[in-house]
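Why do we care about 3D structure at all? Because function follows from shape, and shape follows, mostly, from sequence. That is the central idea of this module. The next example makes it concrete: a single protein chain, its amino acid sequence, and then its structure expressed as tokens.
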Amino acid sequence: QVQLVESGGGLVQAGGSLRLSCAASGRTFSTYAMGWFRQAPGKEREFVAAINWSGSSTSYADSVKGRFTISRDNAKNTVYLQMNSLKPEDTALYYCKADRLGVTNWGQGTQVTVSS
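And the structure:
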């Protein structure tokens, strides 16, 4: 298993930027596919972005395409989510997810609040 700790959330005005980080434990981080999800109050958790083990392939939800960028640094056991042009509807608890061989691990989440 891998333990995941998110950071970088906070309060930002609409149009602003934040960079989320997800630090992973263990020596097998580079073998995991990683993703970011979010959950707003009263809504279900939804997919935001994903990246494969090497960083050569990424995917995004339509709602964040062109504004968010997922990346990873396997030497630092960390995956990032750069969020630009933030909107109030991006307000949510953001979770990091790791997948490997059918096993999924989640972090505890970091809160992002975007004021209008």
